[in-house]
């Protein structure tokens, strides 16, 4: 284990490896809430998110010997829960990838059809409004699984394009297409809070 | 009127040297934001943004939306964690003690 691992964490890991029930409970109570948040974002469904967290903990308990301590325990658990979520999503009946109406449109000459508006307010200003935060959350949830996972892996979980593509078993090119479409769709879904169109003002 | 202007611009983008259509611009957006465009491509991208109000508006909204997504998720991460449902904690600990799960 590296010096990165704090004393308390090292003691917890030693106790877990020794099979301590108390240490297991400490770990579950400490980390489950954060892992549940991650799982909810990927799976949207509450019951499935709880299943994923349970499966992730059991996988972690089984593979404690492989934990090398070069990352904090919490980060290690988070990677496990992300993997479990991706596995669950793969097992779902493929969701219809319907981004109709959410992607940019162009006219016959290849010109973008986009209503004009003044530049939106800065994100931190927009986020002061609760309805904006709620819309952002529900819009990410509303993306099809394949696109939401690409967005979450790269923009939220901080995986590189290569890592995210590997996790999803697709090429980097395909990952980039999904990510771009996910962001473009999110932009369309957030239109109501980005400010009025100039045409509508007249 | 807007329609006509757009057609004219479309024609212009197709005939001027070092110019790209909005459709081609769309394919560059991700690389642009990742800072992965080579200098000549970057220049082409920048001139398109300057000349095309639609793509400018689109790009601003795209960037703000991405930032909103990241900020909301970060805010959720930073919020004090509520307790995990007791039923979940119990289920995990019970499953851990079952021999087939260890």
Describe it for me?
The complex is a heterodimer of chains A (202) and B (102). Helices cover 64% and strands 2% of the residues of chain A. The model of chain A has no long low-confidence stretch (mean pLDDT 92). Chain A has helices at 7-17, 21-43, 46-62, 73-91, 123-126, 130-142, 145-156, 161-168, 172-190, 198-201; strands at residues 105-106, 112-113. Chain A contains ten helices and two strands. In chain A, helix 2 packs across helix 3, helix 2 crosses helix 4 and helix 8 (161-168) packs across helix 9 (172-190). Chain A has 202 residues and is mainly alpha-helical. Chain B contains five helices and no strands. Chain B is elongated, with a radius of gyration of 25 Å. In chain B, 75% of the residues lie in helices and 0% in strands. Chain B has helices at 2-15, 22-33, 39-51, 53-78, 86-97. Chain B is mostly helical and 102 residues long. The chains are: A mainly alpha (202), B mainly alpha (102).
What is the strand and helix layout of this fold?
The complex is a heterodimer of chains A (202) and B (102).
Chain A: H1 7-17, H2 21-43, H3 46-62, H4 73-91, E1 105-106, E2 112-113, H5 123-126, H6 130-142, H7 145-156, H8 161-168, H9 172-190, H10 198-201
Antiparallel strand pairs in A: 1-2
Chain B: H1 2-15, H2 22-33, H3 39-51, H4 53-78, H5 86-97
Helix pairs in contact in B: 3-4
Task: Report a brief summary of the structure.
The complex is a heterodimer of chains A (202) and B (102). Chain A has 202 residues and is mainly α. Chain A has ten helices and two strands.
**With helices defined by DSSP (H or I, 4 residues minimum), what is the helix count of chain B?**
5
| H-E string of chain B | HHHHH
| DSSP strand content of chain A | under 5%
What's the β-strand tally of chain A?
A: 2
Low-pLDDT ranges of chain A: none
Oligomer: heterodimer
Order of helices and strands of chain A: HHHHEEHHHHHH
Instruction: Quickly give the structural class of chain B.
Output: mainly alpha
Care to count the β-strands of chain B? 0
């Amino acid at each position: 284990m590296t010096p990165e691992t704090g004393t308390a964490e090292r003691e917890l890991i030693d106790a877990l490896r020794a099979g301590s029930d108390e240490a297991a409970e400490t770990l579950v109570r400490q980390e489950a809430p954060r892992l549940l948040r991650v799982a909810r974002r990927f799976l949207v469904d509450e019951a499935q998110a709880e299943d994923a967290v349970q499966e992730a903990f059991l996988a972690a308990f089984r593979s404690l010997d492989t934990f090398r301590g070069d990352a904090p325990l919490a980060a290690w658990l988070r990677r496990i829960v992300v993997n479990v979520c991706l596995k669950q999503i793969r097992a779902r009946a493929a969701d219809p990838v319907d981004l109709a109406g959410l992607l940019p449109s162009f006219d016959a000459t290849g010109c973008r059809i986009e209503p004009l508006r003044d530049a939106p307010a800065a994100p931190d200003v927009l986020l002061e409004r609760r309805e904006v935060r709620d819309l952002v959350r529900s819009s990410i949830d509303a993306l099809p699984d394949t696109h939401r996972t690409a967005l979450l892996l790269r923009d939220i979980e901080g995986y590189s394009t290569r890592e995210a593509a590997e996790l999803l078993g697709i090429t980097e090119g395909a990952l980039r297409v999904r990510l771009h479409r996910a962001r473009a769709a999110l932009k369309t879904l957030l239109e109501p809070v980005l400010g009025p169109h100039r045409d509508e003002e007249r | 009127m807007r329609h006509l202007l757009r057609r004219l611009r479309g024609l212009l983008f197709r005939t001027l040297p070092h110019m790209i259509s909005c459709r081609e611009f769309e394919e560059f957006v991700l690389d642009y934001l990742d800072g992965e465009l080579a200098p000549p491509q970057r220049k082409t991208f920048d001139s398109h943004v300057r000349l095309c109000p639609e793509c400018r508006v689109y790009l601003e909204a795209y960037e703000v939306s991405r930032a909103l997504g990241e900020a909301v998720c970060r805010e959720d991460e930073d919020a004090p964690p509520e307790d995990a449902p007791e039923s979940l904690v119990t289920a995990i600990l019970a499953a851990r003690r079952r021999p087939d799960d260890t």
